[in-house]
Amino acid sequence: MGKGNRFVESVIRLWNIFGQFIRFNLVGLVNTVITFIVFALLNKVFSINKFAAEPIGYVCGLINSYFMNKIWTFGKKHRYHTIEVMKFVIVNGIALGGTLLILMFSEDYLHIDVLWGKCIAYCFSIPVNYLGFKFWVFKD
User: What is the C-alpha separation between 19 and 50, in angstroms, rounded?
Assistant: First the structure.
């Protein structure tokens, strides 16, 4: 009986982690769409430099990200705490800095379109944000 209960508990724990990661990615998808649309409009329609357009788009997705991840992904029901918001901003600042470096490198050195560079940058920013949120910002 003891081994069976541990197995069931392990399966439930894995399911909860997997579900949390799925929710994070769904929130990330919404944030990505918000960020990408704002970035593309500013850069391609209004001819705003990529280094100005990216942070503006990022902040739009960032606001959505904080509330959706806090409440839905990580199940935190308490009101926001200043330290939590500061940690959230730090993690996202690291992801943003990496994104800007990737954008610069991809366009200036690889000579690929900035929107493809943006897609490459997601490969960096997604794991940075998830791990930072899970183990630092919204840690139990």
Answer: 34
Question: CA dist 43 to 35, 40, 55, 56, 125, Å?
Answer: 12, 5, 12, 11, 20
How far is residue 73's CA from residue 75's CA, in Å, rounded to a whole number? Answer: 6
- For residue 65, what are the CA distances in angstroms to 10, 33, 56, 95, 105? 29, 12, 14, 13, 26
Domain limits, the chain: 2-137
With CA atoms as reference, report the closest residue to 120 among 104, 135, 140: 104
In tens digits, what is the pLDDT along the chain, a chain of 140 residues?
567 788 888 888 888 778 888 999 999 899 989 999 999 999 999 999 998 998 899 899 989 999 999 999 998 887 778 999 999 999 999 998 999 999 999 989 999 998 899 899 989 988 999 999 999 999 87
Q: H or E element: which one contains 75?
A: none
